[in-house]
């Protein structure tokens, strides 16, 4: 994993931890978002924080398809490396 990928993974985990009001370690131990207090409100809050922090617009369908912290990290990392021009 590149330094950029590690930094993205760390930041995504920190943002999700803040939204879920849990330590990032809890997300590493159980990366399935549904195992946490993940609902439509926290999902939208996470989306807003991720988009604001990384200055990007994520595809809502792809975002909603993400089931784990790693899924969201991959989505953000992929968009950062291959923006769609939005």
Give a brief description.
The protein is mainly α and 86 residues long.
Please, could you describe this protein's structure?
It holds the Pfam family PP-binding. This is Carrier domain-containing protein. Residues 3-80 form the Carrier domain. This protein is 67% helix and 0% strand. It has 86 residues and is an all-alpha fold. The chain has a single domain (3-81), classed as Non-ribosomal Peptide Synthetase Peptidyl Carrier Protein, Chain A, CATH 1.10.1200. Helix 1 (3-20) runs antiparallel to helix 3 (40-54) and helix 1 (3-20) packs across helix 5 (69-81). The longest helix is centred in the first third of the chain and has 18 residues, at 3-20.
CATH superfamily: ACP-like
Q: How much is the average pLDDT?
A: 92
Cα-atom radius of gyration: 12 Å
Name the overall outline. Answer: globular
Q: Biggest sheet, in brief?
A: none
Q: What amount of the residues lies in strands? A: under 5%
Number of separate strands: 0
Count of runs of 4 or more consecutive helical residues: 5
What's the structural domain tally?
A: 1
Helix content: 55-70%
Unreliable parts: none
Order of helices and strands: HHHHH
Could you name the CATH class?
A: Mainly Alpha
Distance between the termini: 27 Å
Can you name the CATH architecture? Orthogonal Bundle
CATH topology: Non-ribosomal Peptide Synthetase Peptidyl Carrier Protein, Chain A
SSE class: mainly alpha
